[in-house]
Amino acid sequence: MTKFDKAKLPSRYVTEGPARAPHRSYYYAMGMSEAEIHQPLVGVATCWNEAAPCNIALNRQAQAAKMGVKEAHGTPREFTTITVTDGIAMGHEGMRSSLASREAIADTVELTMRGHCYDALVGLAGCDKSLPGMMMAMVRLNVPSVFLYGGSILPGRLDGKDVTVQDVFEAVGQHQAGNLTTCELEKLEAVACPSAGACGGQFTANTMACVSEAIGLALMNSAGAPAPYESRDQYAEASGRAVMNLLEKNIRARDVVTLKSLENAARVVACTGGSTNAGLHLPAIAHEAGIDFFLEDVCEIFRDTPYFVDLKPGGAYVAKDLYEVGGVPVVMKELRKAGLLHEDCITADGTTIGEALDKITREADGKVIYPISAPISKTGGVVGLKGNLAPAGAIVKVAGMTEEQQVFTGPARVFECEEDAFEAVKARSYKEGDVLVIRNEGPAGGPGMREMLATTAALSGQGMGKKVALITDGRFSGATRGFCVGHVGPEAAHGGPIALLKDGDMITLNALTGELSVALSDEDLAARKADWTGPRETLYASGALWKYSQLVGETYKGAVTHPGAKAERHVYMDL
Ligand SMILES: CC(C)(O)[C@@H](O)C(=O)O
Ligand SMILES: [Mg+2]
After folding, report:
1. Which helix (H) or strand (E) holds 261?
2. In this predicted structure, what is the pLDDT of residue 135?
3. 10 Å Cβ neighbour count for 231?
4. 10-residue block means of pLDDT along the chain (575 residues)?
5. 3-state SS string over 384-410?
6. What is the structure's pLDDT at 380?
7. Which of the two ends of the chain, N or C, has the fewest CB atoms closer than 10 A to its terminal CB?
8. How many A from CA of 432 to the centre of ligand 1?
9. pTM score, two decimals?
10. Is 183 annotated as a binding residue?
């Protein structure tokens, strides 16, 4: 006997009454028993595929999640969605599909859930866009939901040192500069990524994995264990049981994701020196709940959050090291000590964050996680900027940079797209002191807001990462380092000031005061705007990317494809 009142669950539309006999026939066809058909139906969405190591371990974990659902008298129904893997899409046209895939993932999970009237959702994801896409679907549907990260990759080992894919991207620059032989490059590429799992530093996937715990959608500590560890499967099973508990208590995704829990998530991004992409994904998740939590709100949190977790790319350690010293819960305990955490938010086990943290006995180890009272730096590893060059804001990761390195003035060197900039970097046709400007790479103008690790890593690899600055209306990888300012808004395609820059304009970037400006008066900018010939024509006149370019909204609001949506009028069946 199930303790769930099926008459109140969405799945009754597909399993109950004489009119649903044909529907039940399909379930019998898949080997389900009568009892299983009449239990709650739980969608188990995974992003498993063979595109990249990030998602390859999800299938195993999904089976464990399904066991957990079954143990708690639910019937799991597994389904998959798409992914685009940034590491492989990087540096070419393919990267335009990346951010657009976040929306496709949210949409496909939503449509599958709606079409089959599932009652709850366990979502497993392992890569940069699949994590926020899955969380967006949970908040959009507002069903009882538990998120589970697929886990990070193990670090590679070369010449007695841990290495990650970041080293391989940067090795391309060393190779271009003649400081690395082809043979050495090949040796590195063969060992840098030794297992299943998402990129190992505090890059975008691990940043969003930390967010999943901090925001409350994932069980505490579930993000930490690397993908190949079968100990992850205990969390998967527990996630399956947890979603049934939430269903019983009718705790839904929007009870968990609130303004306060978004603030908790932003704190964790800042104190770990996380990916600037969180400046897009947190507003996008908030948007699904009808909450205005824009880039400037995220940056406001960053401003007074100490940076105290020493992770790559700014710092020394990888996700596995963080896990070994206690993971996100220990980080959150430090935030709590400084009064920087809302403890009353709900987490995936149905208790509050404060209650969940009370059960954690470990303390900051002082090496990977510093005590918040003696942080690496007093302000966040990620900073927001504004000024006459970015009236709608911009974002930069400063983790690992000294205060002197966070102020830069130099002449603009303008490129109309990433390829032009990469070629110039490859040919070393730029100078120390330049501010490289890459425009027409915004969400609508790219289209797709490409991530530019190939170019920024090449600069670092050439040893020029600290000698130039870079600004763009596109975005950066979590593995990008150097003074690289992204999300400059409004984007060039919308006629933002970045579209009006000319070579030689003097640009000032100041992460200490939060300024991004160009030495042009309002009159100068207005005169240039009057002469502006309009957005550059993109390559895409049809298909998914054209559709995306037509629908996508502004960067500071998360580059969502339905900026006018009214989440407060949301319906999922009659929940
Ligand atoms: C390839 C990476 C490192 O995953 C990157 O895409 C990121 O955003 O962190
Ligand atoms: Mg990425």
Report:
1. helix 259-271
2. 98
3. 11
4. 83 98 98 98 98 97 98 98 96 97 98 98 98 98 98 96 94 94 98 97 97 98 97 98 98 98 98 97 98 97 96 95 98 98 98 97 98 94 96 96 95 97 95 98 98 94 94 96 96 98 98 97 98 96 97 98 92 86
5. EEEECCEEEEEEEECCCCCCHHHEEEE
6. 80
7. N
8. 26
9. 0.97
10. no
Q: Which helix (H) or strand (E) holds 202?
A: none
Position 240 scores a pLDDT of 98
Our mutation pick for probing the ligand 1 site, out of 169, 318, 477, 480, counting the most ligand atoms within 8 A of Cβ, is: 477
CA distance 319 to 327: 8
With contact defined as beta carbons under 8 Å apart, do 101 and 131 qualify? Answer: no
Quick one: which of 41, 38, 42 has its CA closest to 15?
A: 38
Task: Walk me through the domains of the chain, giving residue ranges and CATH numbers.
Answer: 6-154+195-294+306-358 (3.40.50.2300), 161-194 (no CATH), 383-551 (3.50.30.80)
Q: How many CB atoms lie within 10 A of CB 35?
A: 11
Active-site residue 377, yes or no?
Answer: no
* CA–CA separation, 89 and 276 (whole Å): 18
Supply 133's token pair. 């896409």
Give the whole-angstrom CA distance, residue 292 versus residue 323.
32
| Residues in contact with 60: Cβ distance below 8 Å, sequence separation at least 6, in sequence order | 230, 233
Q: Is 128 annotated as a binding residue?
A: yes
Query: Per residue in 424-453, is it b (16+ CB within 10 Å) or e — as a string?
Result: bbbeeebeeebbbbbbbbbbbbbbbbbbbb
